[in-house]
Amino acid sequence: MKQVTLKKVLKFTGITVLLLALVLCIHIYIVTRPKAPDMNTIVMARIDIKQPITEIEAQQITTWMYQQKGISHVVCNPAMDNIVFTYHAIMTDGYYVTDHFKSAFNYKNATRYIPSEKELQSGCPVAATSITYKVYSFFRHTL
Question: What is the DSSP letter of 87?
Answer without folding.
Answer: E
